[in-house]
Specification:
Layout lengths: L11 H5 L2 H17 L4 H5 L6 H14 L5 H6 L4 H5 L6 H17 L4 H18 L5
Length: 134
């Protein structure tokens, strides 16, 4: 019998450990994208400089998880699908994004129950972002 972790009161933002934890997870996500050959297609879609992507994803996830709304305050509504339309996103890119984020969550100590919930939400969003059939 597996013991379930009890989520703390509050939001996923609270459960994960706040903004610094999200920043660490996002930093590891982009570091892995640079390091792991299995994420090559994903990395290629991001251009040469990841600085802007790191900042925006961190800001977005902070608000999305229930923390301060830095992203919407600075950039307005995320319009995720619209903002990602210029990029070719198929099953391979979706799956690499999900695997890279899951690895980053694991390596930064995201609690297992939260990690499972986030993986489900990330899959729904990442699959909705696809603009290629393959």
């Amino acid at each position: 019998m597996q013991i379930q972790e009890k989520p703390p009161a509050g939001t996923p933002f609270d459960w994960i450990g706040g903004e610094e934890k999200i920043k660490a997870m996002v930093e590891r996500f982009y570091d892995l994208m640079d390091l792991e050959p299995g994420y090559a297609a994903l990395r290629a879609a991001h251009g040469s400089d990841l600085g802007n992507a790191r900042q925006r994803l961190s800001m977005f996830l902070t608000g999305w998880m229930g923390g301060p709304q830095h992203y919407t305050e600075q950039f307005g509504h995320p319009r995720l699908r619209l903002r990602h339309m210029p990029f070719s996103i198929g099953i391979k890119e979706r799956d690499q994004w999900l695997a890279c984020m899951d690895q980053a969550m694991g390596e930064t100590g995201v609690p297992e129950d939260l990690r499972k919930r986030l993986k489900e939400s990330f899959f729904q969003t990442a699959d909705w972002m696809r603009n290629l059939n393959g």
